[in-house]
Amino acid sequence: MSGRASVTVDLHKVVENTRAVVGALGGRSVVGVTKVTCGSPEVARAMLVGGVAGIADSRLENLARMREAGIETEFWLLRAPVPSLAEETVRLADVSLESELEAVRALDEAAGRLGVRHAIVAMVDLGDLREGMMPAGLPDFVDAVEALPNIGLRGIGVSLTCYGGVVPDAANLGELVALAQTAEARTGRRLLVSGGMSSSLDTLVAGALPERVDSLRIGESILLGVSTVTREPILRLHTDAIIARAPVIEVARKPSVPRGTIAQDAFGGVPTFADRGERLRAICAIGHQDVVPTGIVPLDRRVEILGASSDHLVLDVDALSEPPRVGDEIAFVPGYSATLRLFTSPYVEKRYLGG
What we know:
- Helices cover 28% and strands 25% of the residues.
- The longest helix has 18 residues, at 170-187.
- It starts with 5 loop residues before the first strand and ends with a strand.
- The protein is α/β, with parallel strands linked by helices.
- Strands 1, 10, 11, 12, 13, 14, 15 and 16 form an 8-stranded mixed β-sheet that branches. Strands 8-7-6-5-4-3-2-9 form an 8-stranded parallel β-sheet.
């Protein structure tokens, strides 16, 4: 133990989850998404071993990190670049998701200068109100892209659930398929239908995923083993491939209600407390700067999370038969928001099992 907070990835379980997702999709291509792990090369390799067709991330810095680590695959950039980043995008990404012609034209110019061809997936907004052009704009967009010498239209895609919480279903994915077929009629060739992210696995389980949807971009379900619609386990995946641990720095019996006048806490909220008498508490060396406290669940359910400041996590450990000691680690299963912050924090050690 290093005495610092850590996040550990069991790479064997990531491989097994990837294989299970790829197998369940029955021949559709899966692009593994590494953004929640900040483009971890170890995670990318595990996904590739598990059978993904490529690796996707939303940040150019993460694509650069994985390329520098020697990973050879097709890389997708999930967040469209501004025109000033066109050349960096073309250097680092083979495919990017696009909805603005100004950005695509900049990519075309950059690709021409570099002597390469860059592929794009045209994104349409089908209700979630994150990225994507409105469907009526797709025909003109397709025609404009087809006229560019250094850009290849790879497919038509959609983003659902991440912002507006809209669930993929037979209706909106059926609309995506119809839009793709309209685009195919204009291009004269078959296009990829990129039908969303992990949330589309629920549509698969329900038997409503259209056959023509032939590609998904999957990250959270592979890494955390849950549906992004319900946050419940899905496809019998491992839900403990990622574990967070934090060392105990204090153990003491204290009142359950603060003494004195209550004002705002460090984050502008006014806390409330239930009087449960004196309780055994532990403080762990991790806080809001490193994790979302409401997004982690103690591995030992007898441990209760009471709250956190920027650097301290306060736990009720009264129910434990043997209290923790200073230096012991408390383990947690993180959800998506907590995992994102754990990997982003420079103060949290990243550990990998089974490389």
